[in-house]
Amino acid sequence: MSTDLATETARTAPQARTGMSRRTIGNVVLGVVLLTVPLWLPLVGGYTDLASRVLIYALAAMGLNLLLGFTGGLSFGHAAYFGLGAYGVGLMLKYETHSLFLALGVGTLVGGLAATLLGPIAVRRRGIYFSMITIAIGQMFYFIAIRWNTLTGGYDGLSGFARPKFAGPGHLLSMGPTGMYYLVLAAFAIAALLLWIVLNAPLGHAFVAIRENHKRLTFLGVSTQRYIAISFAISGFIAALAGGLNALLDGFASPNLLNYSMSGDFLIIAVLGGMRNFYGPLAGAVIFVLVRDYVSSVTDNWMSVIGLVFVVSVIFFPMGVLGFFNRKSGS
What we know:
It is a single chain. The chain is mainly alpha-helical. The protein has a domain at 46-258. It contains 15 helices and two strands. Strand 1 and strand 2 form a beta hairpin. Helix 4 crosses helix 11. The longest helix has 34 residues, at 2-35. It is globular. It is found in: Cell membrane. It comes from Acidiphilium rubrum.
């Protein structure tokens, strides 16, 4: 038996090393591409704010994907935490501070704490009931933003704030499109790294185990509700960070950022790229944002094209674009 085990280990070790080397090369290539976006994107007809939008939506979808793809909980209300992050940043910059990082930190904290406090309520139910509770929570914040006109601006949204300038050597440095992109990229990289650490830790393995066999873990005495609530809270913090960055990018926070339709966009992005793939939301965000940007310049009916792309993806790429290519390369 020991001889068979040694033979099997010797046979699988080169495959594992090959897989790790491929991932390392892929991460390096992705890093180089993202770092050089402001250099090559204008050459292909793009603009830097478009790349910032891709990373912001990818970050929000990665937060949702932690709950959906890795823990197995379908939320239709994650736009609430995205929107709370945006309003938190906007209100801080308009009334309290000119510090970019303080405002971004408060916005992330507001949305993240909301997810932390409300998650245990939602996770008391599973399946469609869990999804309905998340919608109800999201719409509650949406209508609060609309009705609290004196604070949020109501239907008109919150404006009157802008990106603060950085204190540079001897003077203030303007936060232009390139500076904003690298701020978003830094936030994306930090959040992705922390998410990668979580998913490769015992906590992340517990999330996947809940997704694969929730009942078995319950029978074993594992408090699955607690783990799902933790996943819900982490995903809420990530979504709130993305929402705060979105407010900085636009200089505006709209009630529509809290609406369930925005949650649907994040869900489409996660499914398009691949729910069970770490970089799936990034691939989905690239497709979603580029299609929306191009089609909306041609017709106002761009959602129909997005819907068609989504239907085609679900039929022909049920595991998402990255899931399809990973299966091809694995075979």
